[in-house]
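Model: You mentioned two targets. I'll fold them one after the other.
Researcher: Yes, keep them separate.
Model: Target one:
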Amino acid sequence: LYFFSYTILFLSALFMSVESYRASLESGGQSRKFMVSLPTTLLPGASLLIGLHGSTQRGSIMRKTTEFDAIAEEENLVIFYPDAMDGIWKDGRDDDAGVDDVQFMSDLVDYAANEYGIDRAKTYLVGVSNGGFMTQRVLCERPGLFCAAACVIANLGLDLSRRCSPGSLPSLFLLAGTADPVVPFEGGYVHRPDGSRYLGGILSFENSVAHWRGQGLWDQLAKEQDYTLNDGVQVSETLYTSSHHDEQMKVVLVHGGGHFWFGKEMPEALQKTFGPTTLEYQTTREIWAFFSGLA
């Protein structure tokens, strides 16, 4: 939901091997806009990653926050950073009238296949906050569209959980901060910075994990580990596998973490509102390590 990032200076060398521009396509009778980042040498059969921003933001902020562009050349990766209509993804917790963001995701995959020849078997969806809620809706309503997905600081919406039976799921990465003041770890309602409720109810993070474990038939506990980062922040990671398929589910808890894409420096003023962060847990790196390590 209210995911805020702090704009900092980026070294131009970070993105020098990436071509980036704005594009648009027609989806649901509306012109939808998105940022495109391409490796300078795009090889056949490229992968596609779509990054969904938080509430009230744009794709350009998601690009600056995540810095997935830094791996585009090495990984032969096409990256789309789409814009939600009026800055809010229709993630299933409110009135969806007039906007079909699930169809937009499907149209983006088609666009990438037609324009850049991406491999449809190597498509990834990543969302943070409101974008993470939207990612979960896509998993519920368009099974098979993505081969893996990551949801950062976003539990599962209560209403969506009641109608979500996709039949199959891609590999899934879930990350939460246990002290998130916006998307409460214990569930209930998302809160605006002023403390007021925002949109519909949400499951606790633990119940969200349980829902996805059940839907994805992740019935085997493959690995558990707890470790302490250099700044003293504790992290817990759990990996689930299945006796029915090869997909995996990784669950990450940043203990005491707030409502941030961890690994980015944030000013104290934002941390007073959105909770603590850590520079030591690199969310982008960990998500891509999970994706790239899949069979």
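Model: Target two:
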Amino acid sequence: LVISLAVILSSFFVHNQKLIIENELRNQGLSLSKNLAYNSEYGLLFKNKEMLDKLGQDMLKNDDIAYAAICDSDGKIISYSANSTLWMDFPRGIKTSYAAVNQYSYKGNGVYDIITPVSTIKEINKGEGLIFDSKDSSIGQTKQENIGFVRIGILLENKEKAVQTMQMIAFFISLLAISGGIVWTVLLTRRITIPIKQLVRMTTMVAAGDYSCYYVNGKTRHDEIGDLTTTFNTMTKELAASAKQIEDYTKNLENMVEVRTSELKDANERLKKLDELKTNFLSIATHEIRTPLASI
């Protein structure tokens, strides 16, 4: 039960931590992607590759970024930066107008591919002129138009390392919990079995007629073992008292038998003497009666 509980709790802990790390990494990528899309608006409008390249290089300062691509509305890559040659050919031919988060495995490496559209505000009633302040209502009605998108890759390597670390922590916590559970189980078992074994030994002694043994180790316990000890000691005391009463009664009975036997012996002796006196009397009486009769 302890092992099962430890495994279940560890699995739940690792799964929960994995979800937390994934959410943090995804949110971090979305935040970086939105920030890059916001900063890339004017570079895409004016096709300023140098400005876009600088933005991409700045993104790579974050160790979790594998690549950063800035594309126009036709999906053509205007600027692309990668932290290694591994990712040079990865993002190709994707065109989108909405934000998306996809997870890919590329050459044994996991990555979150996060796409965020780059939009700007255009005037729709006065010659399609560009405006740069959406709050200026004097220019006319405006609309939001996607002029491209940015695409960044968030490495899952750090997430996987963090998950592995969590798994190791969970393993050691489970091992500690299992060890503690085993020690606790052994101690609890000894706490229960040792008094019971001693009580069994005492019961055997009582059954053999030794009523002088009392179990005192469980008197201070306030559980079932303590109740059993109290009951055992009470029973032993009552048996000892009963045995003493029987012994005393037996001794008294023996004394009474001896007294009665002595009295019967005395009575028998008296009866014998009376019987002899009777016999002598009859003999004398018969003789005395016969002598006169013979003379007559």
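Researcher: Noted. Anything on target two?
Model: The two ends are 125 Å apart (CA to CA).
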